[in-house]
Write a structure and sequence with these properties.
Helix 1 packs across helix 2. The strands form four sheets. Strands 3-8-10-12-14-16-18-20-22 form a nine-stranded mixed β-sheet, covered by helices on one side. Strands 4-7-9-11-13-15-17-19-21 form a nine-stranded mixed β-sheet, with no helix packed on it. It has a two-stranded antiparallel sheet with strand order 1-2. The protein has one domain. The chain is mainly beta. Helices cover 11% and strands 51% of the residues. It has three helices and 22 strands.
């Protein structure tokens, strides 16, 4: 086991908050890529896959010497209506280190779902480095589902460059795992829109660590961050959300909100929302809330004949619905809802 400091804040706060980074001991397994992603056939997109034997690093601060490289290009002016699914199923003691690059060329559009699942209870290790390049006027919706088992380790570093008039939405649905570390960086140009949505569920002794940095660089750009979660048992959750208004991004909007429901007295939630501002004419808002289930809502639902557990489940699902509704494919949305209902 080695000690790591991961997911460092772009601008540090006082050490007393214990949220500037994640200090953790990890045993990084030997890299052994056993199989590849299964990707839905679609004649309109270009896919290249290869094994790369060189260093891979992300803003999470882990390094690997070998990885599976997948590059997906959506051609100029191509509007793809069918959702493209990218699936990986873990079994035995599999390790997956991968980089996926999405190239949205000018005025293109396509929705993706990246799904990770486990077929057994062995310890699995996944590290995804995702790069998104949004061309002028392009549109994309990318949903990432972590449905690995409770013994798994999941690390995801996401970086996107949103060029003029582009619109990108990320939906991170994080349901299981022993250690889950997420880092998102986004840079917006003129009139670009970026939406980051996140659902997390934590239980047992799991660690959930999020570090999201959204940057408004261009005029009239819009960044939104919506995070909904619940933790119980002895789960520890850290949330860092930063929206940065760069000088020159006048008339831009940045809005972030995180809500964490605590379902036990032994779980622990730390949250740090930040607004950094180098431009005067902008609109910025941030907020976090952590606490137990609203007693008035609980009483109201239980008075209709539901048990406490059933009532808590309904309240959580109501919290999650606003994010689930941002997934455009109704079949995918319903499938994820069913998985969430079993996870709560």
């Amino acid at each position: 086991m080695m000690k790591y400091r991961l997911n460092k804040l772009p601008v540090k706060t006082t050490n007393n908050f214990k949220i500037n980074d994640l200090e953790i001991e990890l045993d990084i397994p030997k890299i052994n890529i056993l199989s590849e992603y299964v990707i839905t056939d679609n004649k309109d997109i270009i896919i290249n896959k290869k094994i790369v034997n060189k260093k891979l690093t992300t803003k999470i601060d882990l390094e690997f010497d070998k990885y599976l490289d997948v590059e997906i290009t959506i051609p100029k002016n191509k509007i793809i209506t069918d959702t493209v699914c990218i699936n990986y199923g873990f079994s035995k003691d599999e390790v997956l280190i991968s980089k996926i690059t999405f190239n949205y060329e000018e005025n293109s559009s396509c929705n993706f779902v990246i799904s990770y699942n486990s077929s057994d209870d062995n310890s699995h290790f996944n590290h995804l480095y995702e790069v998104v390049k949004m061309g002028n006027g392009s549109n994309g919706n990318i949903t990432i589902l972590n449905n690995m088992n409770d013994n798994s380790y999941n690390f995801m570093g996401i970086e996107s460059l949103n060029n003029e008039l582009s619109n990108l939405t990320h939906n991170i649905i994080d349901l299981t795992g022993m250690v889950r570390v997420y880092n998102v960086y986004s840079d917006l140009k003129y009139k670009a829109i970026n939406n980051l949505n996140n659902i997390y569920i934590g239980k047992n002794d799991s660690i959930i660590d999020m570090n999201y940095y959204l940057k408004n660089s261009g005029e009239e750009s819009t960044n939104t961050m919506r995070v909904e979660g619940s933790i119980t048992d002895k789960c520890v959750k850290n949330f860092r959300g930063t929206i940065d208004f760069i000088k020159g991004c006048s008339n831009s909007i940045g809005d972030e909100n995180e809500n964490c429901v605590l379902l036990s007295d032994t779980c622990r939630s730390r949250s740090l929302p930040q607004l950094l501002c180098g431009e005067e004419n902008v609109v910025g808002a941030h907020g976090v809330s952590s606490g137990k289930v609203d007693l008035e809502k609980l009483f109201y639902i239980m008075s209709r004949g539901y048990s406490r557990k059933e009532a808590e489940k309904l309240i959580l699902l109501a919290n999650f619905n606003s994010i689930l509704n941002s997934i455009p494919d109704s079949d995918v949305r319903d499938s994820i809802l069913n998985i969430i209902e079993k996870s709560i």
